[in-house]
Amino acid sequence: MLNCIAVDDENLALDLLEDNIQKVPFLNLVKRCKNAFDAIETLQNNHIDLMFLDIQMPGITGVQFLQSLKTKPMVIFVTAYKQYALEGFELDVVDYLLKPIDFERFLKAVNKASELHSLKQKAVSEEHTTPKPDQVSSIFVNADYSLVKIKIEDITYIEGLKDYIKIYVESSSKPIVTRMTMKAIEEKLPSSSYFRVHKSFIVSLEKIESIRNLKIKIGNAQIPISESYSESFFKTLGQ
């Protein structure tokens, strides 16, 4: 269902538009508007998908009105003047109907609007339902006078040492040392998989083997959990 409004200063034109709208099952006429100012109020107070808009109106033209809107519904221009067609399409309107409107031509225009609306809804739906990675799969850091690529899933924990950090990985017995702050590396890691448990330590939740006396065991390392991070950390673990 498309919520729509009809904007025209002539009652006869509004009557004809309303009659056509009522013949189409997927159109719901929210309001008839006699001018742009009435239309603005309706747009502000209602969710409007489609606007039938006359161009030649007193005070402010349909073109000026459309140009003034920051958020625009789909628009079908309705006018008696052919010369505005090009200007209408430059404003990205759905269609351009000439008065008097033939119902078959009207139906073609609103079907086009319906298809466009469906495509937009599908795009929004896919954007919200398609899983997105929390972060990229790897990062690059400066180490040993070169850029070193590190797979994020390979990181077991990170230790901060003033202006440097040590990145411990499963694939190497030696940590990768790079000049970086803990905050900077924390922002690069997926929050769903890595957690800061101490001002000097970030751990991989998947690599934790056990926790005892506020110490995390990962391999041979015993990583402390500070009081300031403990509550949020155990909440993350569901404890």
UniProtKB/TrEMBL annotation:
Q: Which UniProt keywords apply?
A: DNA-binding, Phosphoprotein
- Report the PROSITE patterns cross-referenced here: HTH_LYTTR, RESPONSE_REGULATORY
Quote the SUPFAM superfamilies the UniProt record gives: CheY-like (SSF52172)
Which molecular-function annotation in GO is an example for this chain? DNA binding
Pfam families on file: LytTR, Response_reg
Report domain HTH LytTR-type positions. Answer: 139-239
The record's Gene3D superfamilies line, in alphabetical order, gives: 3.40.50.2300, LytTr DNA-binding domain
Q: Which InterPro entries match?
A: CheY-like_superfamily, LytR-like, LytTR_DNA-bd_dom, Sig_transdc_resp-reg_receiver
All residue ranges annotated as the Response regulatory domain in the record: 3-114
Q: Enumerate the SMART domains for this protein.
A: LytTR, REC
PTM 4-aspartylphosphate: list the residues: 54
**Protein name in the entry:** LytTR family DNA-binding domain-containing protein
Species of the source: Arcicella rigui
